[in-house]
Amino acid sequence: MRHLSFKSPLLALLTAAGLATAAQAADIKIGVAEALSGGAAQYGVAIRNGFQLAAEEINAAGGINGDKLVLVVEDEQGKKEEAINVFKKLIFQDQVLMVFGPTLSNSAQAAHPIAQAAKTVAFGTSNTADGITSIGDYVFRNSVTEADVLPETIKMAVKKAGVKKVAVLYGNDDVFTKSGYDNFKKALDDLKIPVTTTETFAKGDVDFKAQLTKIKATNPDAIVLSALLAEGAPIMVQARQIGLNVPVIGGNGMNSTKIFDLAKDKSDGLYVGSPWSSSNDTPENVKFVKAYTAKFNGAPDQFAAQSYDALHIAAQAMKQVKFSGKLPADRMALRDALPQVKWTGATGAFEFRRATDKAGKPAGYDAQQTPIVSVTKGGQFVIEK
Q1: DSSP letter at 259?
Q2: Rounded CA separation 184/191 (Å)
Q3: pLDDT 10s digits, 58-107
Q4: Of 30, 20, 77, which Cα lies nearest the Cα of 51?
């Protein structure tokens, strides 16, 4: 073992002070549970990238009052059972301050009760199904719900594409796509837009021509589609192949640049809504897009932008907390600080809105943001106004 020897009292004092400062600095462990493999990895990898970029920026700027953020990243594979296991590991074994994720709403409904029971913040950045924040007061999300976004998406398609009647196609075996369908149905009813037919599919299906042929026979002006990319992209391709060239009005699961890789030249005419667009030229978004592209050699999507902003939002709350080093107290202090955060980032101006449970009592926290509606044209998302 090496020993320090001091040549002067002053040097000894300065060195001791430096060692004391170093000893006071600590790592703040943040759990990240995302689908890095499996069908949802097309979302999860971008989400992880957004967190990594934000963590590097925050640490480079001094961290959290001098302490460094350390991401503890786990692959929950887009599966409910794996999400539960990963949440347990991060909360009880790794002793993280909070957990971001999981990627899909299905998994969030399964895993977030673990965090709620452990009095640990669970922060969703990509979960938009109804009811997730009703789980409890430790559940947060900065992903805007389908209930808030879908009516605006439909209104824009009506305005720009003259849509008067639609056919509906949705996945009926997934919490997210079923919730999307419920919100689409309500919005269509509210806007008094007739539905020519409603067809369904299941996760893992690859041939949709039977449903699309039925849809084509009803002569709709657009297809309202609640799907994840794995099924949504082939649906767009097969629709065009049978001559069904009407606009597609999609939910949050379709809002990814991956649509251009998966559907190629059949990707035009997709309407989606989100607080974020790559075409939005605010200073915060321009900075984010430039930094992300330089680091990962590819353009970001909505999911990367939301995770990037989410860590910055959490960091603002952490800076207001005097951490004791005792997790139960620190986790509760973070929970208490988060609702007060207001932040303007890549996704625009953000603040939290209190959600309620099934009995109407206050529960977790949803995002309060204004959606932007875009349509795909020539391999890019173009903002509609």
Answers
A1: H
A2: 10
A3: 999 999 999 999 999 999 999 999 999 999 999 999 999 999 999 999 99
A4: 30
